[in-house]
């Protein structure tokens, strides 16, 4: 694999945690291998690896964008990731406030519901 892939895998593990990445890697097939390589190199090896902004801010941006676009499936994963990047629960709620004003209350409301569910799981020790 490329240096960008190796960097991406390192950043991915740092942000998402080994348990999550190990599960994703185990589920990889020949059909989604090109996609997995693409996201590892581009999302993780380029965007998340950039030192242009801190990972805390990247987490907040990612959560706001996911909510704004209605891509709710990945919100719990990125709520968990935020615990590793330094974005606090208050930071995340501020990001969702922006979503409410600029993209719609229903999207923010659903994102907040998912965040609260995920935080409850984390508080009970379900961290993977």
Task: Kindly describe this structure.
GO terms for molecular function: peroxiredoxin activity. This is 4-carboxymuconolactone decarboxylase. Residues 35-116 form the Carboxymuconolactone decarboxylase-like domain. By secondary structure, this protein is mainly α. The protein folds into two domains: 1-50, no CATH class; 53-127, AhpD-like (Up-down Bundle), CATH 1.20.1290.10. 77% of the residues lie in helices and 0% in strands. It has seven helices and no strands. Helix 1 crosses helix 3 (33-47), helix 4 (55-69) packs across helix 7 (105-123) and helix 6 runs antiparallel to helix 7 (105-123).
Number of domains: 2
Number of strands: 0
Order of helices and strands: HHHHHHH
Largest sheet: none
Number of helical segments with 4 or more residues: 7
Gyration radius, in Å: 15 Å
Give the end-to-end Cα distance, rounded to a whole number of Å.
27 Å
Strand content: under 5%
As a percent range, the share of helical residues equals over 70%
The appropriate CATH architecture of the largest domain is Up-down Bundle
Q: Remind me, CATH topology of the largest domain?
A: AhpD-like
Characterize the overall form. Answer: globular
CATH class of the largest domain: Mainly Alpha
Q: Would you identify the CATH H-level superfamily of the largest domain?
A: AhpD-like
Mean pLDDT: 96
Low-confidence stretches: none
Pfam families: CMD (PF02627)
Organism: Salipiger bermudensis (strain DSM 26914 / JCM 13377 / KCTC 12554 / HTCC2601) (Pelagibaca bermudensis)
InterPro entries: 4CMD/NDH-1_regulator (IPR052512), AhpD-like (IPR029032), CMD-like (IPR003779), Decarb_PcaC (IPR012788)
Protein name: 4-carboxymuconolactone decarboxylase
